[in-house]
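Protein modeling request. Please complete all fields; requests missing the sequence field cannot be processed.
Requester role: graduate student
Desired output: 3D structure, token encoding
Chains: 1
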Amino acid sequence: MGQPVWGVQSYGRDSASLVDRRSRFIVRTYNHLFGAIVAFIALEFALFTSGAAATIARVMLGGSWLLVLVPFMLVSYLASRFAYSSPSRGAQYAGLGLYVVAEAIIFVPILFIAERVAPGAIQSAGIVTMLGFAGLTGVAFITKKDFSFLRSVVMYGSIVALIAVVAGAIFGFQLGTFFSVAMVGLAGAAILYDTSNVLHRFPEDRYVAAALQLFASVALMFWYVLRILMSLSNSRN
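Delivered output (237 residues):
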């Protein structure tokens, strides 16, 4: 009779240890996500208060968007690779830091324009994005549903969106409000997929990479929510 009892107790301790490790991983992931968002805001504040944002915006808006998009994609790939693949914690942090800096720079033109043509839109977009992120995160945590089926939606949707953005840059046509709405939906699907991975799949030593993935999805949602609010502001004027 003694052996089964010890087996149950051992199993219970192992299960409790697994839950405890996963909980620590989740807390670390969202702490790093919060840190990445704060760093992004701080970088934007420094760029705009120093006057560097105006110079960056003029340079980026004065040339082809492809000259911005291609380097950004390369930097994003390298940053993600550092964060996901390297066993070195320092390299993982370097990847996250590189990605945050790249996002801060690529956001300068849209923030520069929004500040002038749609006062208050940046703050409103930030609030809407945070509410959307909180709601989607709540759905994933409360239901504990496996959203891995969204992988194909996010992957193929991202490819189609990239093709549309590149085509718009080459042929000079504007991607309208409906495209922005679709991209907000894609960002929402990405947040659900990422959060599901944080809950169920990410290795517990890769919380920096998990934070990077979530940050990328939040940034995508913020970008297109801001575009929608700027479009609404222009239509009223």
